[in-house]
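Exam revision sheet. Question 4 asks you to relate a sequence to its structure. Input first:
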Amino acid sequence: MALLLDAHPSQQMPMLLFAAVHAEVLARGIAYPQDGAAFIIAFCRENAEILRPTLRARSTQTQRGRALRLPASVPRGGGGRAGRLP
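Answer key, structure tokens:
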């Protein structure tokens, strides 16, 4: 998790680290083992220098962040009532 300190302060979320690891794993064609947590920890330790540029340059956007930007006139659920959560 210390790798996240290389990311922009607003992007220091575990999701960014997982996304960087996932992108690198896909690029290498590596299959995830059964014990994913141990794999990710080892992968981060062994590939920290490769992951750092991605963490510095990339960002993530959560669904929660997108929903907060919807105008009040857009229905968000709750039987079609605009701007009200169920």
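Marking note for examiners. Residues 24 and 50 are 9 Å apart (CA to CA).
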